[in-house]
Each structure stands twice: as structure tokens, then as C-alpha cells.
Design a protein that fits this description.
The structure is a single chain. Helix content is 39%, strand content 26%. The chain has four helices and four strands, in the order βααβββαα. The chain has a four-stranded mixed beta sheet with strand order 1-4-3-2. The radius of gyration is 14 Å and the shape is globular.
């Protein structure tokens, strides 16, 4: 799991221990493979962006790929926002993901089936 700098700043500004614990618990569930039911996503890049509502805030995350000795999928937590701020972040992320190659997008979307 990786965190954007914006997410780190937002997390430190959260009020209340309960809210922080809820966010951490959600991240732990996501890191262990849990996913909520997906709604239809429009474009290929739009389907990379995930949101999960918890404690009145939205956790915005994606699956990204890190290349080292092996290619690994990692969760990238972009931010914890109120609902009004989410569309702006989605637009920004869609612009970033529009530069990705189709192969890279497929690696981000790939699922390991046991």
C-alpha cells in the first residue's frame, strides 16, 4: 500500500480517533483483497479509480503497478475527502491515467485467481 502526499496530509487533519480507525480498517480490508461491488465505469481509465465511503468521507484509491525485480500490483491511496472534493480528484486522476498505455492499464486491472 502506498499513500500520496496529499493523503498523508489529509489523514493528519482528520478529527477524532474513531474516524481514523475506520479509515485504517478500510485500508486493511482493501489490502487483504476485499472489494465492494463495482458500479459500471465508463472509460478504461475511469474504471481504475475506486471510492469507498466511510465515516462520512471518501477514500479514493487505485491499483497501480510497481516495477522492481518483479512487477507487483499495489494499492495507491490518493486521498480521504468529503464528497464535494471527489469529482475534482477524479478528473485529475483521469488525466494522469489517460497517459497510460493499454498494456499498463491491463496490468493494473489484472486479478490473480487462486
Amino acid at each position: 500500500v502506498t499513500f500520496s502526499n496529499e493523503c498523508k496530509v489529509s489523514f493528519t487533519k482528520l478529527k477524532g480517533l474513531h474516524v481514523r480507525q475506520q479509515i485504517i480498517n478500510t485500508i486493511l480490508k482493501l489490502a487483504n483483497g476485499w472489494r465492494q461491488t463495482r458500479k459500471h465505469a465508463g472509460s478504461a481509465t475511469e474504471s481504475l479509480i475506486n471510492e469507498y465511503a466511510t465515516s462520512g468521507l471518501y477514500l479514493v484509491w487505485t491499483t497501480d503497478v510497481e516495477r522492481g525485480e518483479e512487477v507487483l500490483q499495489v494499492l495507491k491511496i490518493w486521498n480521504v475527502l468529503n464528497c464535494v472534493e471527489v469529482p475534482s480528484l477524479r478528473r485529475r486522476l483521469e488525466n494522469i491515467f489517460a497517459t497510460y498505455t493499454p498494456e499498463y492499464i491491463q496490468r493494473c486491472k489484472a486479478k490473480l485467481l487462486d
